[in-house]
Design a protein that fits this description.
The complex is a heterodimer of chains A (272) and B (165). With 272 residues, chain A is α+β, with helices and mostly antiparallel strands. Chain A is built from four helices and twelve strands, in the order H-H-H-E-E-E-E-E-E-E-E-E-E-E-E-H. Chain A is rod-shaped, with a radius of gyration of 45 Å. Chain A starts with a helix and ends with a helix. About 2% of the residues of chain A have low confidence. Helices cover 70% and strands 0% of the residues of chain B. Chain B starts with a helix and ends with a helix. Classes of the chains: A alpha+beta (272), B mainly alpha (165). At the A-B interface, helix 2 and helix 3 of A face helix 3 and helix 4 of B.
Chain lengths: 272, 165
């Protein structure tokens, strides 16, 4: 302790030097504008450098959580991309609610199991039955044309009376004219039928498209049926008889859609 | 002895602030003759008193020149250099006289002593004056030039006045 005191006493001039130097330096900085401005700007520089250094050190330790946050955001943004989406609804049996347009028809996809075209009454057997919501009287269509009307339904299967059946009449019209006629099969060829009851004032031409009229419980409007191939007009009659070439090749039907009229029960009730 | 130092103090501070720092030398060089007072303080004087007296003389010049702190700081550093010099060079101190002079010390030692102290003083003064390291070349020129002028002036003063005593 004594040696320490002696040491400090011996070296006291150093402390005095530091004291006097600091005092005079303080006087310089506080009384000379030039030195003061440089001093304070340097202090700000040092201060800013210190803070930016400590901040970058701090940020280094925050890198991990920052990375995680960025990765989460990346994943979120990637989910927004179109490529991340697939079409979730593959079947067409969709029911869409809308306040303006009420959906009237829904569609049940089905495959053809057996099919006949050469008989006078032809039937199509489908792999969709009552379990899929198929009921009697429903229309069956393909993307190219009409197929027929469901006649009998079992839990897993259903039979369809084909268009190729004598005596069946399907309401139809020539595209462009709001005049109804009927499609009926004459039992001769699987690829054509007759369109009867078309008023004679309608100028029919070969190649005119024929589609469903929509005046039917079963078939929606504007399902293609075929095109006019021959005009068999009897001048004595008031009606055209047109030969129609089916747009659908009935030997080749595979995938069909069973058309469900959502309001069929209501309509039938009111028609009683 | 004391009165001689007091007289030297007053005279040198006056000469420094009234003449030497006013007229100025070409190229902005300075002659810091006032440190001659501190250089010739007696050997036996305490270190802290050397520092205080050095600080006081610098402060006096500062007050008269209106450069508060610059001369005081330079003089404090110079005084500290003198203290260190005589602590290191104790062997050479053994002179007959009571204060450092050309007569008492060998020329080589006295020249070293004067030039070292004035060099440190110049460094402190001009660095504080420039207060930055930009244009350091010019600052270095001022330091070395002023050291030479100051050392020569002090040696002349010592030859003229002390030798006569």
């Amino acid at each position: 302790m004594r040696t320490l005191v002696i040491f400090f006493k011996r070296q006291s001039y150093i402390f005095l030097f530091v004291l006097l130097g600091a005092l005079s330096f303080y006087l310089v900085v506080s009384n000379n504008d030039f030195q003061r401005s440089i001093f304070y700007s340097s202090m700000v520089e040092i201060n800013g450098g210190f803070f930016s250094t400590t901040k970058s050190i701090r940020n280094f330790f925050l890198l991990r959580s920052t990375n995680e946050a960025l990765a989460a955001e990346n994943a979120f943004l990637r989910e927004q991309l179109q490529t991340s989406h697939f079409k979730a609804i593959h079947h067409l049996d969709t029911f869409r609610h809308d306040t303006v347009y009420r959906q009237m028809f829904s569609y049940i996809p089905a495959s053809v199991i057996s099919n006949s075209t050469d008989n006078r009454e032809n039937f199509v057997l489908l792999d969709a039955g009552a379990n899929s919501g198929v009921e009697e009287g429903m229309a069956v269509i393909t993307s190219d044309g009409i197929v027929g009307i469901v006649k009998r339904v079992s839990p897993h299967f259903s039979t369809v009376v084909s268009v190729l059946t004598e005596g069946n009449k399907i309401s139809a019209k020539i595209v462009g004219y709001d005049v109804i006629g009927s499609i009926m099969w004459d039992g001769l060829r699987y690829d054509c039928a007759l369109m009867v009851e078309v008023p004679s004032h309608v100028p029919a031409h070969i190649g005119d498209k024929v589609e469903t009229s929509g005046y039917s419980l079963a078939f929606p409007a504007k399902i293609p049926i075929g095109s006019v191939s021959e005009i068999l007009t009897d001048n004595a009659s008031d009606f055209h008889t047109l030969r129609i070439l089916f747009s659908q090749n009935y030997k080749k039907i595979n995938k069909v859609y069973i058309v469900k009229n959502i309001y069929s029960k209501e309509i039938k009730d009111i028609q009683k | 002895m004391i009165w001689k130092n007091v007289l030297r103090f007053i005279l040198l501070v006056f000469v420094q602030s009234a003449i030497l720092s006013q007229i100025g030398l070409p190229l902005n060089l300075h002659v810091f003759l006032y440190i001659y007072f501190m250089l010739l303080l007696p050997y036996q004087i305490k270190d802290w008193l050397v520092l205080l007296l050095g600080f006081a003389s610098g402060m006096m010049v500062d007050i008269l020149m209106g450069t508060l702190g610059i001369f005081a700081f330079s003089m404090t550093v110079a005084s500290f250099t003198r203290v260190i010099f005589f602590r290191v060079a104790k062997a050479n101190e053994a002179g007959q006289q009571k204060f450092p002079s050309l007569k008492d010390m060998k020329f080589r030692n006295f020249f070293l002593y004067v030039s070292l102290v004035s060099f440190v003083h110049s460094i402190a003064f001009f660095m504080l004056d420039a207060f930055s390291f930009s244009h350091f070349g010019h600052t270095l020129f001022l330091i070395i030039g002023s050291t030479i002028f100051t050392s020569v002036a002090i040696l002349f003063c010592n030859i003229i006045f002390v030798s006569k005593e």
